[in-house]
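Troubleshooting: if your tokenizer reports a length mismatch, compare your output against this known-good record of 161 residues.
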Amino acid sequence: MINSLIFFIVFAAHEFYVSIMDVDYSKKEHSIQVTKKIFFDDLEHALVLFTKNQELDILAYNQDSLKPILAKYFIKHIFFEVNNTIKEFNYLGQEYLDGSFYCYLEIPEINKIKNIKIKDNLLIDVFKGQENIVYLNINNNKKTIRLREGFEEQKLWFAKQ
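Known-good structure output:
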């Protein structure tokens, strides 16, 4: 009983940092659509360091004014390579829901996906133990990858369409 209590106290005191990325390929729209979910306080802390603006309050910020800041931060920390070619993404915007920011990206003009490499080191330089979980749904294949310090990118191959 005491060992269980000690384990619970140590585990409960340990801070946990995670973000979620959903990557879906739309054959109809010929694009990769990405949703990144991040706890607002983690994102705010990272953006304070990124912008060097100690007064930054992302919940009070006008969403249109926040968009270019987030776009720059994402471009610095997230990379996609599709079929062995680096692809730029469009940062579409963000919304705040239930304690998290949902940020939306799109990679246009993708006709098929043979392989994809994703690098996501968002927040890794800010929080020790940060993990970025990526759920992929490409060509009706669902895969999950876990990115973290030292393992910030992974390449996956998919069956022909």
